[in-house]
Design goal:
Keywords: CBS domain, Cell membrane, Membrane, Repeat, Transmembrane, Transmembrane helix. It is built from 22 helices and 13 strands. The protein has about 500 residues and is of the alpha+beta class.
């Protein structure tokens, strides 16, 4: 009897170890990185090839592991019950159940799964050969079980056929980049470069172009000397040439072609015909995707294109460098003008020109301001407020407080952005029906601090405007005369009368 008992305990120990193998294998193979396994396979590791082959048929793999795991667990429980019944009688059933539950949960499930989840790739490589043998051995049984499962699901109108993935390849890559960045294994600059490459198909040319208000052009009707001077003083190598009207682009002059022409005429600008050295302009619609435009640049061996809208009006220009900067960030050389428009203040706020693109601001400050509805930061403020704000007017959205520092005509020229401060309103006093019944118009916020800190030419009103503003404030604060009762008093009296009637 003692020999039989020890033999049964030894068999139970072996079965628990096999259960641990199945549990750890399931976790390791499902958590293993497919990309890393592909890399190992290309480097000549045969175990990675086995893992990839097993993962190609996950239903067969999971079915074989579950069959083997349940088989050994049930067998171990049966042997333990037999052994404990022989030792303790009928009470041995409860003792065996309790003991096997603790042993299987700790040593057969939690322990091996914890090890596998901590080192999934290493564990998957180690168990790959043995798992392949098990899957091949239990293959017929697994096929029958899967057939029964599919038949039952079909009765309920369900199917296990693989459909379209929920996420596209770009979305999966983008999610992987965010996870790696959050874990600290991918720096922000690398994330921006890889993310910019994935964004090319989603961006349009209008999102990366140089707007027409910032374009440098030369007039074909200007004297040749003036044209040469403008081209040589420009930090750009290519400049559009217009005639009669800014929207009438008739050519693109390259500085190198101009220098070559000057050399041929003995450096006499008066003998140059600008139209003879200007190249034919290439017009592209503003709705072209950045990825298509990049492919077009590479296909045509061109670096420069004029962007037009649906009516043929010039909207701006786009260059190959503009597209590359969406991937690698700002590309500067000794002739480029340093990018202006973003200044970080000592108090943590940021002063931004309204023309700064939202994508550049997000990259520079690691923000997440949306850029779907607007390209520039000024456009974002106008879109969210549905108005053209006045100077010193402040708004809060996207966890940021935007204060308009300067406005030029209908354009927001400069803003101050700081983190939004959550202000908890004081509790309303009981018995005040006026504030509860009246529909107050939205209050326009003005940031006096920003108004004082702004420079004289950016945020100081003229003397006449200051006098008008002061007069308006006096009118608003002085009590009304007896002949002209205050509307607010009348409203309050009417409200109290209505409340008294309701109470009666």
């Amino acid at each position: 009897m003692n020999v039989t008992l020890w033999l049964m305990l030894a068999i139970i120990l072996v079965l628990v170890c096999i259960s641990a193998f199945f549990s750890g294998t399931e976790t390791a193979l499902t958590a293993a990185s497919r990309a890393r396994m592909m890399s190992y396979e290309k480097n000549g590791d045969p175990r990675a090839s086995i893992v990839n082959r097993l993962l190609e048929k996950k239903d067969r793999l999971i079915g074989a592991i579950l069959i083997g795991n349940n088989l050994v667990n049930i067998l171990a429980s049966a042997l333990a019950t037999t052994a404990f019944v022989g030792l303790f009688g009928q009470s041995g059933v409860a003792i065996a159940t309790l003991a096997m539950t603790v042993i299987v949960v700790i040593f057969g499930e939690v322990l091996p799964k914890s090890i596998s989840i901590a080192h999934p790739d290493t564990t998957a490589l180690r168990v790959s050969r043995m798992t392949s043998v098990v899957v091949t051995t239990l293959g017929p049984i697994t096929a029958v079980v899967n057939w029964i499962v599919r038949l039952i699901l079909r009765l309920f109108g369900m199917s296990l056929d693989q459909g379209a993935p929920l996420l596209t390849a770009h979305e999966e890559l983008r999610g992987t980049l965010e996870v790696l960045h959050r874990e600290g294994t991918l720096v922000n600059a690398d994330r921006n470069r890889l993310g910019g490459l994935l964004d090319l198909a989603e961006l349009e040319v209008s999102d990366v172009m140089v707007h027409r208000t910032a374009m440098r052009q030369v007039n074909v009707d200007d004297p040749a000397e003036e044209i040469v001077r403008q081209v040589l003083e420009s930090p750009y190598t290519r400049m559009p040439v217009w005639k009669t009207d800014y929207d009438n682009i008739v050519g693109v002059v390259h500085a190198k072609d101009l220098l070559r022409a000057l050399h041929e005429v003995d450096n006499d600008p008066g003998r140059i015909d600008i139209m003879k050295i200007a190249a034919k302009p290439w017009f592209v619609p503003e709705t072209t995707s950045v990825q298509d435009q990049l492919n077009a640049f590479l296909r045509r061996h061109a670096h420069f294109a004029i962007v037009v809208d649906e009516y043929g009006e010039v909207e701006g220009l786009v260059t190959l460098e503009d597209i590359l900067e969406e991937i690698v960030g700002n590309i500067a050389d000794e002739h480029d003008v340093e990018m202006q428009g973003v200044t970080t203040e000592a108090d943590g706020s940021v002063v931004v020109d309204g023309s700064v693109p939202i994508r550049d601001l997000n990259r520079a400050l690691d923000w997440n301001l949306p850029d779907e509805e607007a390209v520039t930061i000024a456009g974002l403020v106008i879109h969210e407020t549905q108005m053209i704000p006045e100077e010193r007017q402040a708004f809060t959205f996207f966890n940021k407080r935007f204060t308009v520092l300067k406005r030029e005509k209908n354009r927001i020229a400069k803003l101050r952005i700081r983190p939004a401060q959550v202000v908890v309103p004081p509790p309303k006093k009981a018995g005040g029906p006026v504030s509860a019944l009246r529909n107050e118009p939205p209050v326009v916020e003005y940031d006096e601090d920003d108004y004082i800190e702004a420079s004289q030419d950016e945020a100081r009103t003229t003397e006449a405007e200051a006098e008008t503003l002061a007069a308006d404030r006096v009118d608003a604060t002085e009590p009304t005369s007896a002949s002209e009762p205050d509307d607010r008093v009348v409203d309050e009296e009417a409200t109290r009368e209505e409340t008294r009637r309701t109470g009666d």
